[in-house]
Amino acid sequence: MRVGIPQGLFYVYYYPLWKTFFTDLGVEVLSTPPSNRKIIDQGIAHAVDETCFPVKVYFGHIAELCQEEMDYLFVPRFVSVERKHYICPKFMGVPDMVRASFTKLPPLLSPLVDLSRTDKHWRKEIMKVGRHFTWRGKKIEQAYQHGMEELERFRQLTRQGYSPPEALLVWEGKKLPLPGKGDLNIGVLGHGYALYDEAISMGLIKRLREMECNVYMVEMIEKSYIESRAATLPKRVFWTLGRKIAGSALYLHQQTDIDGLIYLACFGCGPDSLIGDLVKRNMQDKPYMMLTVDEHSGEAGINTRLEAFCDMLRRRRINSESNLPTYGQLLYSLQGSVEGP
Ligand code: SF4
């Protein structure tokens, strides 16, 4: 038996769990290579225009996978991965959109991932997936438990400083050194499936490291710090990823050794337009840059903006220019009564 798992959306957060689960049930797992231009173009051809860039890329991975022989395609329907917090509604419709957009598809395995319901419900969903391969309930439970242990091992690697795609390679047994030290400390924010996908983010993290920056990611921050900062917001952010981004931004904002923050947003993303603005309003005295990408973004434009941002941060370290913030508010207020933008 072979199951295909597209390398898009929540792959970057949950692949170790599903890979271990299926492997323990005696199933061969097929996946796609990291996103590239061909995959993006296939995604654009299959997805509806109105959807966001990461969903289009996910469709490209499905088109790529469909060229292989497989018995099932694994496309979970994510609703909630923690109690009373939710995933963007686009995730809920992904299995339906996939069915509507592809004519030749293997049968889909689409468990409903809604952890806001009871544990019993989630257990039933896992069993439903497992029963395609074995009738031994105990074996399915053990495979899931093993998957969760492997997921924790992967998460520990991200806490050590590996980006999630690097942590996946290390988790699979590849030897990778931890990134070297640079002279600037930059926090990067965004949805992981965009930020850590080199084709979507145009290698944002790699480029920053090449520019001698230490990159701080959400996954490296202690969960309790994120939660306590997110709890200070006047209204609860009920999107899981949005809350993590906002809480991490507020936490990084307080750290004096963080020189600046970069938010990678996707064109067409509703949550990004809201969370990005929320973060911006709380970054008055910390340099902050928002980069919005879509399928038409060019590498040169991103590179220029990153270089300019890093140059500005380095110049701010020189005393005479330390009053130059990104948004200009401090500069305006120092000059007199003129209110900044
Ligand atoms: S949160 Fe934004 S980027 Fe993610 S699936 Fe929803 S619309 Fe797309």
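^ iron/sulfur cluster complex. Strands lie at 2-5, 28-31, 72-74, 77-80, 108-109, 112-114, 184-190, 213-216, 260-266, 288-293. Residues 335-341 have pLDDT under 50 and may be disordered.
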